[in-house]
Design brief:
Distance between the termini: 51 Å
Helix content: 25-40%
Strand content: 25-35%
Number of helices: 13
Number of strands: 20
Structural class: alpha+beta
Length: 448
């Protein structure tokens, strides 16, 4: 330890943790420290007391920089655990953090990081009583309380939807009327959050016989071919999002929605992709069942009248996400296989603390698809930023065979090896660009 180092005594009781500055070694070799706020107040440590260099000190950052991403994650995770009641027991917080698969450090290291946060005032320690005696609780500091209010705001984005949706159901039992009203509720919410560049309507994509519950199109760059109030017919190039709205999402209704979105996929060149979503106010299906039904639809396919439905034959021709308010959120993305080839897969998101974040995730994905070339990066990341580590992502199943879409197109083709390589490289570059664009790491999907 060097003179002036910021430190803390890790062996002190949790409720007594504070900042110190190292002063000197006395004549007997004892370590002398002083509190930061009262530098004249000295303390001589015994050999058994554990003095630790603070991970946020200048010397620690120079000699052994802390893993800022890990530390921020642990703080955010602790904050989310305490968020709904403003406090969480120390033992429960440590257990929950250590059991989180995203945390790969030891229990001792987690406790060391938490102690550092306590000395910073980001987390406070209070002593309470439990059945077994004294219980330590972690309480949020003022800054973290503000962060939790933002997290709660993001998760409650659709609270108005829930209230009004339940009210109509108490008075009206006529299914089509309730469904039309709830569809309008969703449209009203979308209008509050989407850029003015986009118009929300119901209607048709030119050349497609299906009517869509919700069409979102670019009204700055494109004009509808037909418009009467909120009924439109628009060219495919103008479409940025299609949403199927269901009061109750059953397996049958999900399949019907996937059929409709499959038709959208036929008019989508995927560059950039059209958002293809399913939004439901409730569902008897579990998250696992929703994933299984979507997987079966795209993996097996079926003949409908004169055409084949289901199989993914080009990038982004499949569903973007399915949102069941307060219950489930399933979305698609692309991963690399062992052969370093792209394949579409299904993922789910859950709240680590039981927040109803499904609509917030739905809106984040929709806004990501509605980005357009602007003077500055217009990626709308605030929802993900607010929810932070409370969001848990899990991969479920692929929704295509390894030889799908672009990889299937070159099987038994007349192209020579160099032409095949060039074609696949171009297709993979497009997917890479789109994935980066949707994640906000690129300003434009036109890179490359």
């Amino acid at each position: 330890m060097k003179k002036g180092d910021l430190c803390f005594v890790s062996s002190d009781p949790w409720e007594s943790l504070m900042h110190y500055r190292f002063v000197e070694y006395d004549e007997q070799g004892g370590r002398v420290i002083a509190t930061v706020r009262q530098p004249r107040s000295r303390r001589i440590l015994s050999s058994s007391e554990d003095l630790r260099l603070h991970p946020f000190s200048i010397r620690a950052n120079i000699e052994s920089p802390p893993d800022q991403e890990l530390y921020s994650f642990i703080l955010d995770l602790t904050s989310s655990l305490a968020g709904q009641t403003n406090k969480v027991s120390l033992a429960d917080a440590v257990d929950r953090i250590c059991s989180d698969k995203r945390v790969t450090v030891s229990k001792e290291h987690v406790e060391f990081v938490l102690k550092a946060f306590v000395t910073e005032g980001l987390i406070n320690v209070i002593v309470g009583k439990g059945t077994a005696g004294k219980v330590m609780f972690l309480e949020l500091g003022k800054y973290q309380q503000e962060m939790e209010r933002r997290r709660a705001f993001a998760a409650s984005m659709a609270s108005e939807l829930e209230t009004l949706s339940e009210r109509i159901g108490l008075l009206v039992s006529h299914g089509p009327t309730v469904g039309a009203y709830r569809e309008q509720l969703l449209i009203n919410m979308l209008r509050k959050h989407l850029p003015k560049r986009y118009h929300i309507a119901s209607g048709f994509i030119y050349g497609c016989p299906r009517q869509f519950d919700v069409l979102i199109y670019d009204c700055i760059e494109y004009a509808p071919l037909f418009r009467e109030d909120d009924l439109v017919v628009i060219p495919a190039n103008a479409v940025r999002a299609v949403i199927e709205v269901k009061t109750t999402l059953s397996a049958t209704e999900l399949r019907k929605s996937l059929d409709i979105l499959y038709q959208v996929g036929r008019h989508d060149d995927g560059y950039p992709p059209i958002f293809k979503g399913v939004f439901s106010f409730k569902s008897p299906m579990s998250e696992k069942s929703i994933c299984s039904n979507i997987h079966d639809y795209y993996m097996n396919g079926y003949m409908g009248r004169s055409e084949l439905y289901g199989l993914v034959n080009k990038p982004y021709a499949h569903i973007t996400c399915a949102c069941i308010y307060g219950k489930s959120y399933v979305f698609s993305s692309y991963r690399k296989t062992k052969l370093n080839e792209y394949i579409p897969a299904l993922y789910t998101k859950k709240s680590n603390t039981g927040l109803k974040s499904q609509v917030a995730w739905f809106m984040q994905e929709l806004l990501a698809h509605l980005r357009y070339d602007a003077a500055k990066n217009n990626y709308f990341s605030y929802i993900d930023d607010m929810l932070g580590s409370d969001t848990l992502v899990q991969r479920h199943q692929d929704i295509a065979d390894p030889e799908w879409g672009p990889y299937a197109a070159v099987v038994d083709s007349d192209l020579d090896d160099s032409e095949v390589e060039a074609y696949l490289r171009n297709q993979e570059l497009r997917i890479t660009n789109i994935q980066s664009w949707l994640a906000g790491t690129e300003d434009s999907w036109r890179k490359g």
